[in-house]
Amino acid sequence: MRASPVTRPFALCVAFTICLSGLCYSQKSAEITGKWSMVSITPDGDQIPWTLSINNDNGKYTATVEGNEGRSSARDIKVDGVTVHFRTTYQDEDYDVDLKLQENRLVGTWSGNGESGETQGTRATGS
């Protein structure tokens, strides 16, 4: 059975669109990697500064969190395009952090120890 003259260009267009979608998705994921200067807001309104470093080694993401208490590896990291989720420990308690890349900023929330709040960051200088 031969493809109709209309079917072939349509199939090529669909294949090209799928390839471009994968490329754009990959580029967005790459934009989330790097070093970020973050600030989390506590329920009391305090601002807690910290640094987030996200790396991608052949599709495997890792992250480290650094603050006043030192540096530690993030756990359960999941990157999906422009979103990232991970768990980290702060003052001996585990916290979930969910972030989304929006206009060259990471914005999102943290939750744990019965509390939650907002967090946001910008790309660290020199990264």
Structural account:
It is a single chain. 20% of the residues lie in helices and 57% in strands. It is α+β, with helices and mostly antiparallel strands and 127 residues long. Strands 4-3-2-1-9-8-7-6-5 form a 9-stranded antiparallel beta sheet. A hairpin with a 2-residue loop joins strand 8 (105-112) and strand 9. The termini are far apart.
Describe the structure in brief.
The protein is of the alpha+beta class. It is 20% helix and 57% strand. It is built from one helix and nine strands, in the order αβββββββββ.
Structural class: alpha+beta
Query: What's the number of extended β-strand segments?
Result: 9
Shape: globular
What's the helix count? 1
Radius of gyration, in angstroms, nearest whole number: 19 Å
Low-confidence stretches: 9-29
* Beta-strand fraction estimate: over 45%
Helix content: 10-25%
Write out the strand line-up for the largest beta sheet, numbering strands in chain order. 4-3-2-1-9-8-7-6-5
**Main sheet: strands, sense, barrel:** 9 strands, antiparallel
Helix and strand topology:
Layout: H1 7-32, E1 34-41, E2 47-57, E3 60-67, E4 70-73, E5 75-80, E6 83-90, E7 93-102, E8 105-112, E9 115-123
Antiparallel strand pairs: 1-2, 1-9, 2-3, 3-4, 5-6, 6-7, 7-8, 8-9
Keywords:
nine-stranded antiparallel beta sheet, 1 helix, 127 residues
